[in-house]
DNA sequence: TATGAATGAGAGTTCATTCAT
DNA sequence: TATGAATGAACTCTCATTCAT
């Protein structure tokens, strides 16, 4: 029919992402996913064979899409200054527009880091353009050339990612401490980008 | 009895923290908690009346203890330089020695931020010495006096907390990207403290 | 098509026999049968309209073939000695080369004897040459003429069939009791025939 | 309460035997067993942890009881004549009064002989008085002393057991062939014992 | 304060069967 | 004659919670 744009399979994946992101793996209900996808519960098992299988499929899909978006960033030769400007911006905007992605990955990161690690590793291996080592090599070179102060690429990236991602998970915490509500609108994220870029550039560039 | 060092109640709380931290609220099993605490499942309901009640009790206890440890930091008059040195150190060390705490709070932050917010707010209100506003007032003053570059105390704290906490949740992610395993031993956390303090001081102090 | 040697229908029947014999009616899976037959599940219903229908078709086919093979035995005028020699031999050899048949019938015999009875009765009625009564009449005559000691033809046949068929179902039991494995090869069945024929002739002939 | 004679556990076992014997493992319904036992479905899993576990427990119990009853037979020093008289009688009477036992074991014998074998072997090992080898040793001695004609104790026992047990499983088959209904009452079994003992003694004693 | 037994509601999963093509 | 997708009913199993003692 004309109004059925997406396949059942895709509808299930979309509904599952929402449910898993909202309640975690254990808290998610297969029944709820099926209803939200507008299909019979059994179809879900027909396509994904188990709740766990569906979960992994969602994770896979969502991570692959994410990496596809991030990969362009690192390909061209960059100065560390450019990198520290573009990465947080992209990262924060990506997360801001995909809250379900952030939550899903957050859950998994806490609960079974090994799993998400291997999923990511798998995706990275499959993306020939995005080899992990190049990036870390580049960072090392930056340091060797005296462009950045941090010698260890792992610490370097941790600083970058931490500042970029924290707003999405830790915001409530800072809200509680400060006693003030912070709207998670575009405005907030714009200010967040500014602050992060500023700290990173002043803090890590030589 | 004399040979029973911890009360059943405390044993339950301890076991519950482990279980909730490991599997989240929905994934945790009351049965497992009871067995780990060495008591009968019914006792758990006798003391805490429901799984939810037990969960809140654990959260309460664990957060209160955490804040008690953090509060000392801010009481004395500090320079921003001192603050940016001491806070990440304490924070990272605290988290490193209480992984269950980090995971529990992480879960809750993702799943129902409102809940953990109100728990934290409650604790803070009860701790007369640790009023949130003082800290934020202090930060504002630091900026007014030209000591730090970040005008917004929320952004300021987000930067601090983000860099401090990320190692615990995001580490696997950076591992996957970099393709290198990072041991989470004392050594690693020492290096992490150094890097974070360095970035924060260079990035935010004027 | 030319390359398709067996019709779908026959492929289904063959696969179904294997599956029903291996797992019984309730344990058999329509899906498994279809896959084994190399056809789509829906085809199975197209041909046999239900799992039950397929089961009955298999039973029918398999029993009909069996009786066809047995019937020759009784047609010619026989002495009881000849009968007691030939019947067990044929029976045991038939069962040894059709293990699925034995299991299928065994299941049905235990679970709904009425069903298999009526199937057999139906087949027998349709085979004009193999009227049951003749055989029983013959046995009665043997007794009347003082050739066999057993007066009741039912008991007579029970003894014959029991000794012939038991090896196939009860063998594991005797193995367990005796603690020794008995290979179910041609050799074993040859020895079994000898023993059975011996017992029957000595035990029932006058 | 006074009217509750049996424990839930025993009630479940009894109901399960009936259901498994009637429909086989795959056809049996946990729900049905629970209802018949007058307990909640969940209790069944509380005691036996799975349908499979319950099945094995039933098998175990039923087989152990059976062997307990049979074991007395072989302990005293017997002549083969005595053995061939008493064993079929006991065996047939036992089976006649425990039809569920026969069906259950029959199913298992057909479906997974290995399982029932190991169950039986386990029971036999646990019954120090009933070592399998003694019986087979005795049979061998009988032959050595010229008392029986069958040299192979396995064949000997197969003949004995086959004739004893067949009435219970194969009766419908003979009924179908003969076209006559055979009542499975005490009378029938008495006649069956007579016939079997007669065949065995004439057929195997020297 | 403590326990083993019990329960109801629902969870994930399976399966024979049907529909649209 | 053939198929992939779809379905509803039922199935095994789980789990928070309560009861009797």
Label the CATH architecture of chain A. Orthogonal Bundle
For the largest interface, the chains and their residue counts are: A-B, 64 and 64 residues
Q: How is the CATH topology of chain A named?
A: Tetracycline Repressor, domain 2
Poorly predicted tracts of residues of chain A: none
What is the number of domains of chain A?
Answer: 1
Taken in chain order, the helices and strands of chain A follow as HHHHHHHHHH
State the helicity of chain A in percent bands: over 70%
Taking Cα atoms only, what radius of gyration of chain A do you get, to the nearest Å? 19 Å
Outline the structure in words.
- The structure is a homotetramer of 206-residue chains.
- Chain A contains ten helices and no strands.
- With 206 residues, chain A is mostly helical.
- The radius of gyration of chain A is 19 Å and the shape is globular.
- Chains in contact: A-B, C-D.
- Chains A and B meet through helix 1, helix 6, helix 7, helix 8 and helix 9 of A and helix 1, helix 6, helix 7, helix 8 and helix 9 of B.
- Chain D binds a DNA duplex (21 and 21 nucleotides) through helix 3.
TL;DR?
The structure is a homotetramer of 206-residue chains. With 206 residues, chain A is an all-alpha fold.
